[in-house]
Sequence to fold (266 residues):
Amino acid sequence: MNAPDNFFLPDIQASADLRQLAIHKVGVKGLRYPLALLDANGKVQNTVAEISLSVGLPPEVKGTHMSRFVELLEQRRAPLNVNRLLRMFEEMLLRLEAASGEIELAFPCFISKTAPVSGVESLLDYDVRMIVSKREGERSELTLEVVAPVTSLCPCSREISEYGAHNQRSHITIVARLRSGMSPEELLRLAEEEASCEVFGLLKRPDEKWVTERAYDNPKFVEDLVRDIALRLMKEPRIAQWTVKSENFESIHNHSAYAEISGENA
Fold:
């Protein structure tokens, strides 16, 4: 039997709740979705993001409208950058009639890199996280997190050895709460420039010689990595608050070396 055109369905989620307990975050998480991004060069990059969307729920309301979160993603929109993500967030709050909320996007991004000697090009993948959030009565905040794989070479090993020095791949993580727009590529490049050497997806033999000697001429402890990057972050007016971490996956130990610094910019 076909349902009538005007069939009333009760909205239980919008009914009153008598327990008088506000919920700080309610929504959907672990949602994988195609994502078009606008990179620092104005080019569109397609990726897949794991997305979490949530809002604050007043104490008198029983539940939120979960379908509206997915509807937000289903809308046709221009490729996202920092400013467009902020507009998407404001649209979410309006749709859900919420005074607070959060959107988190975690995704791999790919950057084309040119080998230092041969000039061959290859893609390198980086992990990126964007978080836009708002507390009731406060302004929206945008946090950008990147993880850059780099090479670090031990200064002590180079100093005490008659030849050679041990090096390792390191992951540098930068978490920055932004005052204004800044691309993931800018933070990633900052991390790479302060490492013993950056890494590449494809290297020929002359390139291998170059990166080996570059790291040897630029040794850094895990402490050096975070301090040098912190000094760069402190001078960046677009950043309000930051944390830099480095984990060195040691080649002569079965454990990692780790360091972390946090700070705020005036």
